[in-house]
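Researcher: Please translate sequence to structure tokens.
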Amino acid sequence: MVGKTVIHPSQIALVQQAYCVPLSTLDEAQAILHSEAKAVFKYNNTMLEPATHRAWATEIVNRAEAFGTIDDGHSQYSSRM
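Model: Translation complete:
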């Protein structure tokens, strides 16, 4: 993961929110990492390829675990910290 340097404690929440993962992105990542995922498949009008996107999907899941998620339709932040 990539980090950011903050110089004041009031900046921490903003940085954490910037790294949180939209739920729709997390859903795609989990579909790619699913043990029964096909070589290429359509998901939410997007073509996904586990062989090509596995590293990205792993990064997204790890980021969601570390920083939480955000609902695409709402701006409400759900922290994992």
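Researcher: Any highlights?
Model: The longest helix spans residues 50-67.
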